[in-house]
């Protein structure tokens, strides 16, 4: 996948995952990697930016298999941002799909 296209949808995929449930970093990498090939080094700067933008917050939770984990949780403003981004994604997706199928968008 083209790197610019990947960067464009990565945030939406992360927000979707966190909208569904709180996750720790590696868990997010695992989930998103099923859709987009990413590494841990890709996701942590994004998580930090989303946290700085107040779209995410985190909490520490003990783990039964190792050290405590930092779980990320979407905030109320993050949910609003996610829903706006999701709506925009579908609008663009549908418009581009119609265009590629040769549908006249002026009709």
TrEMBL record:
One Pfam family this sequence matches: PadR
Origin species: Clostridium mobile
Superkingdom per UniProt: Bacteria
InterPro entries membership: Metal_resp_DNA-bind_regulator, Tscrpt_reg_PadR_N
Name of the protein this chain belongs to: PadR family transcriptional regulator
Residue ranges of every copy of the Transcription regulator PadR N-terminal domain listed in the record: 14-81
């Amino acid at each position: 996948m083209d790197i610019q296209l990947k960067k464009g949808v990565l945030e939406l995929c992360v927000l979707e995952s966190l909208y569904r449930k709180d996750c720790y970093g590696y868990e997010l990498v695992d989930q998103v990697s099923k859709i987009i090939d990413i590494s841990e080094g890709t996701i942590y700067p994004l998580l930090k930016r989303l946290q700085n933008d107040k779209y995410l917050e985190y909490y520490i939770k003990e783990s039964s298999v190792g050290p405590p984990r930092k779980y990320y949780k979407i905030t109320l403003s993050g949910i609003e941002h996610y829903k706006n981004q999701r709506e925009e994604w579908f609008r663009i997706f549908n418009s581009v799909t119609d265009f590629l199928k040769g549908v006249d968008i002026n009709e």
